[in-house]
Amino acid sequence: MSVYRTPKSPYWQYDFQQKGRRFHGSTGVETRRAAEEIERRIRRQAAMGELDDAAQMTLDQAAGRWWAEHGSTLRGGDRLEARIERAVMAVGPQTRIGAITTDVVARAIQTRRGQGFKRSKADDAREYLPKPGTVNRDMIDSLRPILIRARKVWGAKLPEIDWQALRMKEPKPKPREFAGDELDQVKAQLRPHWHDLVDMAARYGCRLSELFFPLDDLDVFDLGNARVKLRERKGGDDHIVPLLPEDAAMLAARKGRAQAANLETVWFRERRLPGPGGKTVLRALTYAGASIALRRAMTRSGLRAAKGMKGAHDLRHHSGMQMLRATGNLRLAQALLGHADIKSTMVYAHAVEGDVRNGLAKVHANAFSAASSDTTSSDKKTG
């Protein structure tokens, strides 16, 4: 039997080949004996050709196939794999994908909404429920790509699912931006090897995961026409960002050093090996390390308490707000941030509208004050 268990999951997995085709995934059970029974059943179904019709695949089988064909190529694999497993368990690993309807997903969403968790702080014994955004990512954003591929690529005839009706309403984020020397205050709380990454995020609005792009996606051959391809798009399309010459020069130098050190990212730190005349080596920075460093810097700088700034995504908000303020062009802000739908960019316009409203109020107040002053002066002259 080819069942096994990984440290990251309590459930036993299966993995075997039949007629040149690989079958693998979670059995959804926590005992070896039950897992072996499920694997035997799947083997019989595969041998009889019952799984040749893609609609007859179980959700777990479809998730495993999607992961092998596409998901494993995406960045943020550990986080994505964990979300998919939560979705599969909420729907039911052995549910046939041909039987997954809007109602089935709705019931699974309710199950996910009720799955409480405790924070890691030792002094916090309360149980929290997942936020609507977390539920949407775990359920809709995880299930939808699998079922779309099953229909378009594997030829499965599946029920239509109203994803829009299922999506839980999320509170609109309020874009935040750095004023004065606030960005410098954040950088002062970071070690110097993070500074270029922070400047890049604040200027171009890249998501943190997008900043860890493959070296081949950075085109700096001509510094005057340099660009970087960002692949971590919600809609799945690549996003091309043009680079200013000074940033292109910085990234070109980093790319050259990264290639010489056999690194896969332009973000690294220098480390001097111990001993006399110790050699300097480069160590790649990571997404997780950047996320933690920025969260801590926001807290230590006081911006978390003062303005609610929590981490890397605030740099993206800052970039969008700066572009909109500088140009007044919502389409340019949309192009910079790579929003597929301009409705996403409208959040930044609403923030600017608030500033305009406050400005109008001040203009009106000043005009009223001036008019009152003129009236008073006129009265004095008349008297």
From TrEMBL:
InterPro entries for the chain: DNA_brk_join_enz, Integrase-like_cat_sf, Integrase_catalytic, Tyrosine_recombinase_XerCD
PROSITE patterns per record: TYR_RECOMBINASE
Gene3D superfamilies: Intergrase catalytic core
Record-annotated Tyr recombinase domain positions: 173-361
Source superkingdom: Bacteria
Swiss-Prot/TrEMBL keywords: DNA integration, DNA recombination
Positions in coiled-coil regions: none
Keyword check for DNA damage: no
Alphabetical list of PANTHER family matching this protein: PHAGE INTEGRASE-RELATED, PROPHAGE INTEGRASE INTD-RELATED
Annotated protein name in UniProt: Tyrosine-type recombinase/integrase
